[in-house]
## 1
Amino acid sequence: MISRDWVCLQFVRIALIGAAVFWTAVADLGARDGCKDWTVLENCRLIVNSANDGDSFHVSAGTNEYIFRLYLVDAPETDEMTPGRLVQQAKYFGITVPQAIEVGRAAKEFTREKLSEPFTVFTRMSTTDSKPCHPD
């Protein structure tokens, strides 16, 4: 069994990287003249959805619903539905597949907790392939 401290440490690492990316994006947003390329959605709320995880989630903003994926964040999968992907993630982090699932579940819970209150999204509304390519 993986220790809770280890899971917390790994998730904090992922969260810090995500926070750094977020703040870099915010700084970039304020610094560039092309701010009109960005859309700001205020008072967003997390929509409960079984597909939500640590790096993608369903959100409502006003009367619209969106699925957002975090740039440069890859939280491990939360179940064994994509075994090949889990093996890649476990290999990357130097952990076992069950540990990767545990970290993925911790990331999902972290995201749910952090987005439990209304929040603001800064987005360019670009689309992404739902099955990204992840090199080894």
Note: The CA atoms of residues 45 and 78 lie 22 Å apart.
## 2
Amino acid sequence: MDHQRLLARTKTRIALLRAAAAGDVTHDCGEDSFSLRDTSTGQSRSSGVTARAKEQLAAEWIRIGPALPQQRSQHQIEPTELGRRILADVDEQAERFLDR
């Protein structure tokens, strides 16, 4: 896999994880897709995460919570403890990079 594709996949996964930590992601079990809510506009968009990324995210970084009250196929997403540590590490590395 080339460097650009790897970087793009990593950015997508981190963005999804960060949005999950903010409570801005739901999972539609009927369509098997993630929806990210844009807090600046209030609009939602579906995330194009590959099947492999979904497996990794669901197995390691995020957990799918209970169904939302008005929409039974929609579930709130939250990060696992590992997911929270990954975000903290990414933020720490970014701070170090910016401080150089």
Note: The chain has a mean pLDDT of 72.
## 3
Amino acid sequence: MTQFTRRDSSHLARMTDQFRRERALARADVDHVFEKWFGDLCPGWLEALDARDDPRWTEDQFDRFILAVDAHLPFRDALVLSALDTMSLEDMEEAVTHPFSERAAEITVTRTWEYLNNPYCVPDLDRTAFAVSIIRTASSAISESPSVGFYSMEAYLCWWMGRLTESEAANEKAIQLSEDYPLARIMRNTYTRGLVPAWLRRQIIEHAGQEGEEVR
């Protein structure tokens, strides 16, 4: 990934300040700001996941990708949902650029509920693993100023894949950066309670049942 070279943390900080100023000034037209800053990132991300290839972003787009993970949580959430399974460009753009719309809420809630509650809804593990590889590579480009958003997103996706040890390790890095980061706290509680994804829980139960049959 040629564009994933080490980034200038001071430049990223200035970009973040500029985004937050524009968001604060926009008020009622905040969706326009989201579209300006993040709308063009969605095609590159989805194309990369679909093709299992590097995102074809410019330097500026990569910087805005890094910025968005921490500064615009709907973007982070859309990255997660699109990593678990295919997602249309229209749905991702809606979730990212119009996060307060009824349709965006429906997209997020419906997909999340299905994964949380349907034991037969298994993520596309290869797709999710590739998304994690992008996230890790991007995170290494900002190692001088680590991102709690990247670490917690890595932890969340690893959990969905059933890679629980990797998930906890990534989340510990997130907690060290910010104990109050909501997703990191959610994940820590998840480990404490011994929760696993619905699809993995089903497999564990089925495996235990098969072992019981063999004993009898």
Note: The CA atoms of residues 119 and 199 lie 4 Å apart.
